[in-house]
Write a structure and sequence with these properties.
single chain, mainly alpha, 4 helices, 80% helix
Length: 61
């Protein structure tokens, strides 16, 4: 697979977040039940989209 440049990676991150994260009902529910920190922790550690975002982040740094 070819290496993506920084602009392409940021485009992928933005499109993933726009498609899956904005308006996520699970995130809203977790935020209401356990707070913002709990919802964020779930997104980072257990959500498949969050895992993909982390992989893109590793490639950016």
């Amino acid at each position: 697979m070819k290496e993506l440049n920084r602009r392409e990676l940021l485009g992928h991150v933005e499109s993933l977040m726009a498609q899956y994260c904005e308006g996520c009902f699970l995130h809203q529910h977790l935020k209401k039940e356990g707070g913002r920190r709990s919802a964020h922790r779930f997104c980072i550690s257990k959500c498949t989209v969050g895992e993909q975002l982390q992989e893109f982040g590793k490639k950016l740094s």
